[in-house]
TrEMBL record:
Domain named ZW10 C-terminal helical: residues: 641-795
Gene name of the encoded protein: ZW10
Subunit structure: Interacts with NBAS and KNTC1/ROD; the interactions are mutually exclusive and indicative for its association in two different vesicle tethering complexes. Component of the RZZ complex composed of KNTC1/ROD, ZW10 and ZWILCH. Component of the NRZ complex composed of NBAS, ZW10 and RINT1/TIP20L; NRZ associates with SNAREs STX18, USE1L, BNIP1/SEC20L and SEC22B (the assembly has been described as syntaxin 18 complex). Interacts directly with RINT1/TIP20L bound to BNIP1/SEC20L. Interacts with C19orf25 and ZWINT. Interacts with ZFYVE1.
Name the record gives this protein: Centromere/kinetochore protein zw10 homolog
Stretches that traverse the bilayer: none
Domain Centromere/kinetochore protein zw10 N-terminal: start-end pairs: 33-125
Pfam families named among the record's database cross-references: ZW10_C, ZW10_C2, Zw10_middle, Zw10_N
Amino acid sequence: MFSKSNMASFVTEVLASSGKLEKEDLAAKISKLSRKVEETKEEVCDMINKRYNEFLPSMQGAEVLMGQAEEVSKEIDVLKSCIETEVQQNLHTAVTEYAKLKQQLERNTTVIAMLRHLEEFHIAMEEFHKALLEKKYVIAAKQLEKARHSADSLKAWKGSDLPLLRALSSELTVQRENLIYHLGDEWKRMTVWKLPPSKGGKLHFIHATKDTGSVCPSILSEPTEMKSFLKTELQLTLGGTKEPGQSPPPLLSCVLQALTIQGELQHKIKLFSQVLLKYLLKPLITYPSLNVEVSEQQDEGTLISLQFAETPEEHSSPSQVYTKVLMVLKTLHTHLLDVSVGERKVSVILGDLVWQDMSHCIIHECLLYSIPTNSCQLEQYSAVIKETEEFEKSLKEMQYLRGDSTELLKYAQDVNCHFASKKCKDVIVAARKLMTSEMHNTVKITQDSKLSVPMLPNPGSGDIKGKQGAKKLEAPRLDNEKQLGARTLCLPVCRISESVQQLMELALHTLSEAVGNSSQCATQLFFTVRNIFQLFYDVVPTYHKENLLKFPHLAAIQHNNCMYIAHHLLTLGHQFSPHLPDPLSEGAATFVDLVPGFRKLGAHCFLAHLNVQRAEMLERLSTARNFSNLDDEDNYSAASKAVRQVIHQLKRLGTVWQDVLPVNIYCKAMGILLNTAISELIAKIMMLEDISTEDGEHLQILCQTIIEEGPPVFIPLPEENKNKKYQEEVPVYVKKWITFKELVIVLQANLQEIVDRWAEGKGPLALEFSSSDMKSLIRALFQNTERRAVALTKIK
C-alpha cells in the first residue's frame, strides 16, 4: 500500500521536468505509474470481493484505497497533459513511441474509472440498506437503481473481472427481491382480502399468502353459488382515513412510488384487479340480490363487504349496477388509488386493467337484458342512456376511464340496432321451435279464416294530394260490369298445422315492429322475416323427412302448410310496404319471389308420399300371381286378397285425408292411386294369352269388386250426403276408369257383343283399346273357331 508522501514525491518528479522531457525518462515514469495502478486495482478488487463475495468487513481499508485511487487519478491527469504537449512539439520525431505511451496511459485511466464505479456501487448499496431499515422505500429504490446502473457500466467494459461482476449482480438480485418483498408485505397489510372458501372449505386471506408473482388458481376459480360471495371482504388499512382533497398517507404513497421505480406496480395492481373483478365487481353486476356495503372501522380502516337482499328480478337494472359499481370504485379511489406515480395516478392503471372485462360483463349481464322487447318501449330507453352517460362521466372524473373509452354509452345509444338484433334472434329461435314441433296438431282453414293483422297507420290519412290521387285512380263503374266473388282468391278449405299458423302470426307481428322504426332496424326485421321462411324451406323437409314419407296424414298437412304460406306471401309484402321506411317502401319489401319455391316444396312433398303409396299398392298387386289360372283356388285366393288389400289401402287413405286436403287435391290424389291400381290390373289381364270361361268369370268378379268399391273411397268431406257428387265424378279423376269398365264388359260378353261395341272402330270399345289389343284379348277369351275368325276380321 502506498503512502501519501511517496505519491506526492512521484508527482513532484514528473512536474519538475520543465521544457523538453527525455523519452527514456518519460517511459520509465509511465511504467512505474502503470505498476502502481495495477497494484491499486488489485487491492480495490480484493476489498470489493471480500465485501460482496466473501463478506469481510473492511470499510476503513476501502476508504484508504479510494483516497489512494483519487491521488493516482490526479497524477495521471497531469502526466497525460504533459504527454499531449510533448507529443505535439515532437510529433515529427516521436509519433509512434508517444502513441504507445498514451495508449498505456488511457488503459490506466479506464481502470481508474472502473474503480470509481465500484466506489459508487458500494456507496449506493450502503445507502440502500440504511433507507430500507428506516422504511424510506423511495430512497431505497432509487439507491438500488444507482447501484444497478454502476454494475451495468462495469459490464460494458471488456476485460472486467467476471467473478467480481457475478458477485455484484448476485447482490443486486438479492437486494432487489428483498425490497420487493418488503413492499409487497406493506401492500398486503394495506389491502386485506377475505375470500369465499375453496372446494376444501377453507377461507382465503390474500394477505396471508406468499407473493410468488401470481394469484393461487383456487382463489381465481369461480365460486359455485351466489351466496358464497357473501363471505367476500376487502379491508383497506392505511393508518387513518383520507378525506377528499387531502394528500394520501405517506406510507401508501411511498410504497406505490417505490413499486413504480422497481417496475412492479403494474404487476401488483394487475393481481389486485383480478381478485377485484372475480369477487366484487362481476358478482355485483351478475347477481341482482347482491349489494355492497362500505363501513368505517375504528383503528382498522375501511371495510367493503357484500350483503344479500331478496329480489324477484333475474337481472339487475343498469341503474342498480352503476350504483353498486361506483360505490366500490369511489371507495377504492378515496382510500387507495388516488395517488400520483410519475405522470399518472394509480386509478388510471386499475381502470386500464378492469375496464374491458367490466364493460363486457355489464353489457352481457345487464344492458343486454334491458333492451326493450317491443318497439313501443324504445322511447323509454332514453333514461338508461342518460344513466350510462353519467356512469362513464363519474369514472372519467376519478380517472378510471380514459376520454376515448365509451363502449357502454355506444352500446346503449345503439339501442335500435340491439333491439332489432335481439328481436331477430328471439324471432328465429321461436320460429325454429315452431318448425321442429309436432305437425299433427291442426287447425281448419275456412274461407272466413283471417290472420290477426296488427293495426297499421293509414299512409294517405291527412294527405290531400294522396286523396286526390286516389280519386283519380278510381276506375269508372260500368253498369254491366261483372264482379268477382268476395271469396274468389281465398285459400280452399283445408287443415294446416297449428304451428304454421303461429309462425305466420309471428311473421306478421315482426313486420309490425318494423313499422315506424329506423331504416336500419326495419330492414333487419324485414329480412329476419324472410329468413324465417327460408329456414322453414330448409329445416322442415329435413327435420320431418322420415315422418313425411311414412305418414300420409303428415304429408297432406305439409302440402297444405306450404300452400298456406305461399298464399300469404303473395300479399304480405304489399300489406306492409307503404308503412315501411325507404328502401323497403320503394318495392324492396316483397316475398313474391318465395312463392314458387313453397308451392313446389308442398307439391314435391305430397307427390313423394304418393309415390310411396303407389309402390305399396303395386307390391300388393304383385302377389296376385299375374291374375292367371284363377280356376285354381290358391291363385284366385291370392288375387282376391291383393284386390281387397288395395281397396282397404284406398279406404284408409280416403279416411286419413278426409277434411284435411282441399277437395280438388283430395280427388286428384285418390284418382291417381285408384288409376294406378286399375292400370296395373288392365295390364296384367291384357298380358294373359289364354283365359278360360272360369278364369274370365273370376276376373270379372274381381274387377266388379273394384268398380263397386272404388267410388266410395272418394269421401273428401265429413258430411256423407255431400260426397255423392265426387263419387259420381270418378271418371274425371281416374283416367283408366272407362277403359276398365269396358274391359269388364268384354270379359262377360260374347263375340257379337264385342263386335257391336267396336262398331267398326267407332264404338266405345274402340275409344279405349287399340285393334291389336282387342284382337289379343279375343284370342285369349275365345277358342279358334270360324266365328272368332270372322269377329277378328271386323276388328280394324
